[in-house]
Amino acid sequence: MQKLQKTWAIGLCLALLISLLAACSKTNNEAAGSDSGTEKPVTSDVKKEGFPIVGKPITLSMMAPDAGVQKWDDMPVFKDLEKLTNIKLQFRNAPMDSFATKKNLVFASGDLPDIFYAADLTPAEQVTYGAQGVLIPLEKLIDDYAPNLKKILDQHPELRKSITTNDGHIYALPYIDLSAVWYRGPMWYNGKFLKALNVKALPETTEELFAYLKRVKDEDPNGNGKPDEIPLTSVKLDDIRMFMLGFWGIYDEQIYADKDGKVHYTPQEEGYKGYLTFLNRLWTAGLLDKETFSQTDDQKKAKGKNNQVALFSDWFPYFTLGGEPDGSNPLMKPVKSEVPGSPVYGKHPGISSNGTFAITSTNPDPEASMRWVDYLYGYDGATLFGQGPENVLWKFKDKQNHVKEWLPVPGGGDREEYRSTLTPNYGIVAPGISSSELAKGLRGDFDQWIDKETAEKLVPFAKPPYPHVFLTEAEQTEASSLLSDLDTYVKQMEAKFVTGQEPLSNWDQYKSQIAKMGGERIAEIYQAAYDRWNKSGSGQ
Question: What does the radius of gyration of the chain's CA atoms come to, in whole angstroms?
């Protein structure tokens, strides 16, 4: 009897606990404005336009990675924005190297900030905590309180699709870069070698590229009388893989959609075999750095600064070759192979992260929070957080036409280091926008040369490889499991094929093993996600 009473008591406690959890879940969903149409009433006098955002000052808590060298409470951009908006922020920052762990603990404990900022919320986190009501839906707030962001999303519907989850909601906001073409360092020629070899026209095909690299090896273009030239260098192929795969019609090293909308898993494609075959040919001929699979990036750069390297990848050429930023080291134009439709180039998708900002269910003023972040998607807010306050590091040369000019760094020193004392947007991906309009007047001769080289050599072949998509929970679990083993196998076999440890005559056996490990299934999963993305429009 006593045991039965104990069991009944435990059952009653469980029932009460479940009821309590259900009530909490209901409260969260109501706070978020659930699919049933329930919406949280506006709790402050939020203006839909103009400043301040609220008539009476309010305080909101924000969690972010602790970037920059200044305490965020003391940063001029936050002080300026508080004066403008009447919104004060209390910062709950965590060190950058432990931010992900701290973020997980905050989600697990339920001790939530009102706002997540630069939080790198993964698609899985957005789906999970959005479905639980921990992160609130943002699409109606965007329509009603974010005119800057709404305008961008209306003009670029593919961006809206990329931040809309499978349940039709938007739970986090992106960093949008409308001006970027590349998101990985491209490849560059050493201009001194081109001049020494009297090269008048850059290679247009893989055969012409091979011939040029052979000349580098044989003709001593650095003029030191030693056979120390390195025609092509790399660090484990990670820096050149994506760019060179474009020579064989492939936009990305793992997953890409072709121009017809068919999704491919790159390591099992015939174009990937062409890439491996060419690199093996370079390796055999002594044209690919023999330390490719063992050297560090610093060791690669040391060879460049010693004027040994002819072709390489980096963000800018002088990062590897040294010297001043100028136009003497040409951007490589992707070359054509035997594959029809080549070359291609994987272009920046327009979004660097789709999880930079979110509003939690504990936030008392989501409308005010949305208006606050929307300022960062407009010209004035993007300028403030990107370049700091006016008349500190920059001033307007022609305000009407948004033309700026740099000012001397106060006290001397490095401009970027000083900027890190003004704004948190330093080494983190934060909500906001980047566009060419923001940098008018600030870009020097080298920047303009880069723009010209990019427009002429990359843009004609460029397409985003694959959009930001949301997998279902089941798809994410399956894909993660399959790719964990596939990635390891593919990387090992790439090195073996390139160095000749595995003959390319064994390609069919390799491809068969990829199939057994789930290569085709990966393509199917991402095809389904791509098809949903294509059909999603502006949401469900």
Answer: 27
Q: How far is the C-alpha of 522 from the C-alpha of 265, rounded, in Å?
A: 7
Closest among 385, 453, 446 to 419, alpha carbons compared? 385
Q: E strands of 29-154, at which residues?
A: 58-63, 87-91, 115-117
Residue 394 contacts residue 405 (beta carbons within 8 Å): yes
Give pLDDT, residue 2: 33
Query: What is the rounded CA–CA span in Å between residue 153 and residue 147?
Result: 10
Angstrom distance (rounded) from CA 68 to CA 74: 11
- Tell me the residue type at 233: T
What is the helix (H) or strand (E) element at residue 385, kind and residue range? helix 379-387
Residue 81, both tokens: 């924005």
Q: What is the pTM of this model?
A: 0.82
- In this prediction, residue 11 carries a pLDDT of 37
Amino acid identity, position 67: A
Is residue 422 a contact partner of residue 368, using CB atoms and an 8 Å limit? no
DSSP letter at 136 equals P
Neighbouring residues of 174: CB distance < 8 A, sequence distance ≥ 6: 159, 162, 163, 351, 352, 353, 354, 355, 356, 431, 468
Q: Which tokens go with 416?
A: 């970027």
Q: Which ranges of 121-248 would DSSP assign to H, the alpha helix?
A: 123-131, 139-145, 147-155, 157-163, 191-196, 206-218, 241-245
- Whether 174 and 67 have beta carbons less than 8 Å apart is answered as no
What averages of pLDDT result for each successive group of 10 residues across the chain (540 residues)?
A: 35 35 39 42 78 96 89 95 97 93 96 97 92 97 97 94 93 92 93 97 98 98 96 97 97 94 96 98 98 96 97 96 94 96 93 92 98 98 96 96 96 91 91 93 93 95 92 91 96 98 97 97 97 70
H or E segment to which residue 415 belongs:
helix 415-419
